[in-house]
Specification:
The chain has 14 helices and ten strands. The chain has 420 residues and is of the alpha+beta class. Strands 1, 2, 3, 4, 5, 6, 7, 8, 9 and 10 form a ten-stranded mixed sheet that branches.
Length: 420
């Protein structure tokens, strides 16, 4: 089914095209509805593959939530995946964890009175616990990265010892010394500044930004809650590093970039602070993943499958296929030095090389600069098939997805030709 997903996924994810013919449609339909087929098992298989790639690496375990279905009233379905990225070179190594959240009946009443383990926000800690298994698989360090929704005291207090955290602050918390978190950097001198490229986002074009960096140590106080006995089990204080990155002289019509980051990593120098902002910027990888899965890519949102279990199975398979596409994107420059086998069957290499010969031109920029057998070599081929000319910047995920799908169709014809 994964092979079919990356062959016809450009047209959207639907069971009939996935099958290819009536027999294939029935076969995939039975697979999706088989009670022995579950997202848990598919994720476990993908996680085992990822765990085999992490030895000796500093891993960024990036987690977030995306909406799959929402009737605008009281029923919705969200997906919460965690992916592994190499902190040194940005290579996407694979899936770590994924969970579905099904909401019915509107907002839960008396949310503040329910135990933390019964809340949806427990998903952030669950993903962190799963990420800690990468340390047992040989990772040199595991840093869990999340956006503001993960700014939860329990996340910091109950994190596994094998993980570090880097979370964008959401709450202007009261600190142990009585001051507020957001104001604590006002009296601190700048460590220095850095210039970086801010990617485009809805309502915001890409631009260069100059960030002033400040950092210091903060002590968070345990929050007061309705369930006193449960709260008392948490440590009364937690010591963290706080990094503030504030844009200097933004354009007049732009919202200034301003990141407030809480981390368990020690941050005392400008180099430390730059490393934290570099790690945090890798969070954009999971946003790219959602883009590939959804409207601009596999269009999983458009699937009209009514039954919950088959849809979740199909979504999990689509998540794994989208990760493969993004692995090609992440290693398009060859910096990760990933092998072809991360995404392709090694038997595909002759077809890749044959297609590559038809795409190369006379100039150096129209020739594939990467070693044969590398993932970057295949990424170049897919980018060219997707419409990239070799000029005007780097190919994006949708271009590479389109080329990846086109190569799969060409490879199908290649195999048929060898049978005749």
């Amino acid at each position: 089914m994964l092979e079919r997903l990356v062959t016809v996924g450009q047209a959207g994810v639907r069971v009939r095209p996935l099958g290819g013919d009536r027999a294939g449609e029935v076969r995939i339909g039975r697979f999706l509805r088989n009670p022995d087929v579950t997202p848990r098992e598919m994720v476990a298989s993908a996680r085992a593959r990822t765990a085999g790639l992490v030895a000796g690496r500093h891993i960024l375990a990036i987690q977030d939530t995306t909406s799959l279905r929402d009737d605008g009233d009281q029923c919705s379905l969200q997906l919460h995946p965690t992916i592994a990225v190499d902190a040194a070179d940005g290579a996407l190594l694979g899936l770590v964890h994924a969970a579905f959240l099904r909401r019915t009946g509107g907002k839960k009443a008396l949310c503040g009175k329910r135990p933390f383990d019964e809340k949806e926000s427990r998903r952030w800690l669950d993903a962190t616990i799963e990420a800690a298994q990468l340390a047992a698989a040989g990772a040199a360090c595991v840093t869990v990265i999340a956006d503001r929704e993960c700014d939860i005291y329990d996340e910091f207090a109950r994190r596994p010892a094998a993980t570090e955290l880097l979370i964008r602050a959401h709450h202007d918390r009261v600190l142990a010394n009585g001051t507020r978190l957001y104001a604590c950097t006002e009296s601190l001198p700048e460590l220095g500044r850095e210039t970086l490229s801010l990617p485009a986002a809805p309502g915001r074009p890409a631009r260069k930004v100059v960030l002033a960096l400040r950092a210091g140590q903060v002590t968070l106080k345990r929050p007061m809650r309705n369930r006193a006995a449960e709260t008392a089990k948490l440590p009364p204080q937690i010591v963290l590093s706080f990094v503030e990155a504030r844009e200097i002289d933004p354009p007049g019509d732009a919202t200034p970039a301003h990141w407030r980051l809480l981390t368990t990593h020690a941050v005392t120098t400008l180099a430390d602070a730059k490393q934290i902002t570099r790690f945090y910027r890798q969070r954009w990888t999971i946003e790219q993943l959602f883009r590939v899965m959804k409207t601009k890519g596999f269009n999983i949102e458009a699937v009209r499958m009514a039954d919950a279990a088959p849809f979740e199975n199909l979504t999990t398979a689509t998540l794994i296929a989208a990760i493969q596409v993004l692995q090609l994107v992440r290693d398009r420059d060859g910096t990760g030095r990933r092998p072809l086998a991360d995404v392709f069957d090694p038997a595909d290499q002759p077809a890749l090389e044959a297609v590559c010969q038809t795409l190369e031109g006379k100039t150096d920029r129209q020739k594939n600069p990467h070693d044969r057998g590398s993932l970057a070599y295949a990424s170049w081929v897919c980018a060219r098939l997707g419409g990239w000319t070799g000029y005007y910047g780097n190919p994006g995920p949708i271009v590479i997805l389109n080329g990846f799908l086109r190569f799969k169709a060409m490879h199908h014809g290649w195999k048929l030709g060898r049978l005749v």
